[in-house]
């Protein structure tokens, strides 16, 4: 998995990717860039996935970034205040999603 993560982050700046998580079944990978102001979700196996995250400016609001675009696609959030907490989840139809633990700053 480390090789795959390195490929996903190849375009990131050296100080980027401070928060990173693989989903429990390695279907998706979420990471931050631009000093934690952007979050991206890379779908590496079939299915849907999402990152749940919190930003410093609205610390009580959980946000979600979905990737429903297919295998080997990446979606990226708009910029905002820095993220301080993030996890990545695999969507499970008609059931609770399977999520990683939280990565915190």
UniProtKB/TrEMBL annotation:
<feature type="signal peptide">
    <location>
        <begin position="1"/>
        <end position="17"/>
    </location>
</feature>
<protein>
    <recommendedName>
        <fullName>Secreted protein</fullName>
    </recommendedName>
</protein>
<keyword id="KW-0732">Signal</keyword>
